[in-house]
Amino acid sequence: MITPALKDEILKWLCFNTEPEVRGVIDMSDLLAVTNTDFDTLNAVLTYFDRIRFLEDLNSRRVAISLIVRIEAHDFLLRGGFVAQEELLENNIKKLLLEIESVKPQLLDKGEKIATIGTAILSAISLMWKQ
Questions:
Q1: 50 with 66, same domain?
Q2: Helix or strand or coil: residue 131?
Q3: Looking at residue 15, which CATH number applies to its domain?
């Protein structure tokens, strides 16, 4: 499974072992050994990095990788990387759920009032239709 921690590990290795904005060639076996992953998984992550513009001109082969690591990758890593992004998302979801729980009684009360008004309107309409 491709986890935020694995993506961070690969991104860190790329940022610390290549010059930013300069084409580099990396021995695939080095990166595979450091990240303790297989070629297909590593290639999928590199393709993702290319898609989100952390890499440029990616040419990934089983023997070597040619690529340019962009400054954006370094910036993202300095802000905590994928693990921090995941933690932020989880914390925001928890905050949202707590907020929903805190306003739930008010929403239920308002819902009851709306339902009561709706029932009264329907009763009035049905009385008008009977006449």
A1: yes
A2: coil
A3: 1.10.10.10
Q: Which of 93, 89, 90 is nearest to 101 (CA)?
A: 93
* 20 CB-contact burial (10 Å; exposed 0-12 / middle 13-18 / buried 19+): middle
Q: Domain total for the chain?
A: 2
DSSP letter assigned to residue 22: S
**CA distances, 39 to each of 46, 59, 60, 96 (Å):** 10, 13, 10, 39
CB atoms closer than 10 angstroms to residue 83: 15
Residue 127's pLDDT is 65
The answer on 124 and 107 residing in a single domain is yes
Q: Average pLDDT by consecutive 10-residue portion of the chain (131 residues)?
A: 95 95 93 92 96 95 94 96 89 79 74 80 68 51
Stated as kind and residue range, the H or E segment containing 21 is none
Residue 100 host element (H or E): helix 81-130
Shared domain for 68 and 9, answered yes or no, is yes
59 and 19, same structural domain?
A: yes
Which residues lie across from 60 on neighbouring strands?
A: 65
Segments forming the whole domain that contains residue 65: 4-78
